[in-house]
Design brief:
Belongs to the chaperonin (HSP60) family. By secondary structure, the chain is of the alpha/beta class. The protein contains ten helices and eight strands. The strands form three sheets. A four-stranded parallel beta sheet has the order 5-3-1-6, sandwiched between helices. A two-stranded parallel sheet has the order 2-4. β7 and β8 form a beta hairpin. The chain is flat and about 90 Å long. The two termini are 45 Å apart.
Length: 281
């Protein structure tokens, strides 16, 4: 941009007019970003249509379902017993595992565990000692909120400790074993983590976990969650391009007007020992 601008100035172009023109380009980038938000639903419908064998009706149906359940929702497609295609929205989720001890029940008549605004720990590892979850237990006690633990397994010692604290009214907690098997188990845990707004505690690093997610989902270091980074405003390609364009226009405009550039001079570090001719390497 600077190179082309300097060439235009050399042929007689006005620097102020060039700067105004570049700023107009920056505003176009902002317009593209706003347009992208409006066309998001159409893009989803277009991708869904291609994925469903160019069936526009099914594509629009999937886009409509995504709009209703939001980016953190889960869509499953099943064969219908009739010739009609329909969308059924279910709140919450169902898993094929129950609580590990009947002492965790909060509704004795219906043998249910019912929590409101609970904190959820999701892990595919075995909890062997109480020490592993002491910080979490202390935090939930301070906040006076229930705690739901979904783990691969739990040692008898840890389970008995939680049951005793539950019966004494010190903790409001329940433990459930991980549902599913093998790779299907990991997918179910990811769905649970997304729906509850938590992250999965496992042995993999953040990079490996991010690779298993779709292209929009990543680790948000600010919230500590895996979420849709586009919706969270963390990584928006159009926004990044717009910011880069506006910054480039601002710098190029200053250079073209002043025909000068101010940079910080890098100081060479002083040697630890004084330089002695003939001795210092």
């Amino acid at each position: 941009m600077i190179k082309s601008g300097m060439l235009a100035v050399a042929f007689g172009a006005n620097q102020v007019s060039l700067k105004k023109g570049m700023h107009k380009t920056g505003r176009i980038g902002q317009g593209l970003e706003e347009e992208k938000c409006a066309s998001k639903s159409k893009s989803i419908a277009a991708v869904a249509t291609i994925s469903s064998g160019n069936d526009e009706f099914v594509g629009n149906l999937i886009a409509e379902a995504l709009e209703k359940i939001g980016p953190d929702g889960v869509i499953s497609i099943e064969s219908s017993s009739s010739f009609e295609a329909s969308v059924i929205i279910e709140l919450g989720t169902k898993i094929d595992k129950g609580y590990m001890s009947p002492h965790f029940t909060t509704n004795q008549d219906k043998s249910r565990v019912e929590f409101d605004n609970a904190k959820v720990l999701v892990t595919d590892q075995k909890i062997s000692t109480v020490k592993e979850i002491v910080p979490l237990l202390e935090k939930t006690t301070q906040l006076s909120v229930p705690l739901l633990i979904i783990a691969e397994d739990m040692s008898r010692q840890v389970l008995e400790t939680l049951v005793v604290n539950k019966m004494q009214g010190l903790l409001n907690v329940a433990v459930v074993k991980c549902p599913g098997f093998l790779e299907g188990k990991k997918a179910l845990l990811q769905d649970i983590a997304l729906m509850t707004g938590q992250i999965i505690v496992d042995e993999e690093i953040v990079v490996e976990k991010t690779r298993t997610c779709n292209w929009q989902t990543g680790y948000n270091a600010m919230t500590g969650r895996y979420e849709d980074l586009l919706s969270a405003g963390v990584a928006d390609p159009c926004q990044v391009s717009r910011c880069a364009l506006q910054n480039a226009v601002s710098i190029a405009g200053v250079v073209l007007i002043t025909q000068a550039l101010l940079v910080e001079k890098i100081k060479k570090p002083k040697p630890a020992l004084p330089h002695v001719p003939g001795k210092t390497p």
